[in-house]
Amino acid sequence: RTFDFVIKTPPTAFLLKKYAKIEKGSVKGSKESVGTLTKEQIKEIAEIKLPDLNAYDIEAAIKIVKGTALNMGIEIK
């Protein structure tokens, strides 16, 4: 028997929490701020996640990661 294991990149929420140095996202979503990230950090996360996202270019991946960050209560500066 043979098995194929497909290893994916870490979840976006995990990477956002790691870069923002927080333990968990906001309970109230975008209404409550729990941390901040820079645009460069968002771009780094998008580059890591690009192979697993439904995006053809880095700009679309950045938009997806920004949306996740905002819903977690992480501000982007």
Topology record:
Blueprint: H1 12-20, E1 35-37, H2 39-49, H3 58-71, E2 74-76
Parallel strand pairs: 1-2
Main features:
77 residues; mainly alpha; two-stranded parallel sheet; 2 strands
The largest sheet is: 2 strands, parallel
Measure the end-to-end span.
51 Å
Radius of gyration of CA atoms, rounded to a whole number:
14 Å
- The secondary structure category is mainly alpha
- The count of DSSP E runs of length 2 or more, i.e. the number of strands, is 2
Helix percentage: 40-55%
Mean pLDDT: 92
- What portion of residues belong to β-strands? 5-15%
Count helical runs. Answer: 3
Low-confidence stretches: none
Q: How are the strands of the largest sheet arranged?
A: 1-2
Oligomer: single chain
Query: Which H/E pattern describes the elements?
Result: HEHHE
Shape descriptor: globular
Describe this structure in words.
This protein is mostly helical and 77 residues long. 44% of the residues lie in helices and 8% in strands. It is built from 3 helices and 2 strands; from the N terminus they run αβααβ. It has helices spanning 12-20, 39-49, 58-71; strands at residues 35-37, 74-76. A two-stranded parallel sheet has the order 1-2. Helix 2 (39-49) crosses helix 3. The longest helix is centred in the last third of the chain and has 14 residues, at 58-71. It is globular. The mean pLDDT is 92.
